[in-house]
Sequence to fold (263 residues):
Amino acid sequence: MQGSANLNLMIKAARRAGRSLIKDFREVEQLQVSTKGPGDFVTRADREAERLLREELSAGRPNYGWLGEETGAAEGKDPTRRWIVDPLDGTTNFLHGLPHWAVSVALEYKGEIVAAVVFDAAKGELFHAEKGQGAYLNDQRMRVSGRSRMNEALFATGVPFGARPALPATLQDIARLMPGSAGLRRWGAASLDLAYVAAGRLDGFWERGLQPWDIAAGLLLVQEAGGFAEPIRPGSSMLETGSLIAANAGLFESFTKIIRNEG
Fold:
């Protein structure tokens, strides 16, 4: 697939960061680790990956704004565009030697995500999309699954850790969902959960209290692959609240009713 100049820049940056992370992943026991909070680790590898992403993206588009997990927000000379970046989604997996983590890069234009890259460097899988151009895994077009029966559907979520406030609601969601579904996965990387919904590997995903960089790229992947995504609380913003429901067309309504507890 031939992408735009912006998408090609994003892919180049994500691959560069991914190569750096792979080197550290192979030496995970020697990583320098500090803590930001209970169960929420930051590593030298994480910070270096964000530095490389910012260097690459800023060199190509110096006027764009920035929102990164490690370095926060910065206004650009162009107020309509900004990069939303998670240099290492799935840090805890990374630190435990689990090969399930990703680099996530999104481009926002006037409040809307218009390009997305999620790079799973450990598996060599590059998920990417542009608004109106479809979603792709490497060079193959992606589509959400065609399942429409809840008892055949596989879902994913994140179970909050460290006594976070969303835990009770999530456990209630799981109790309502599990009896009528084929199963639930908790992979620990929201960007890949959404990419897997886009690729038809998962049928739906929901979570509360995520950050914009966790979900910005994945949301566009789902939408461009034919899926649907909405905030858990109708009328709110998914990027602002970090709470969302995503699924294929055949399951979205049923799935949404269960998560919203609408009977």
Q: What stands out?
A: Residues 5-141 form a domain with the Fructose-1,6-Bisphosphatase; Chain A, domain 1 fold (CATH 3.30.540.10). The chain has two domains: 5-141, 150-259.
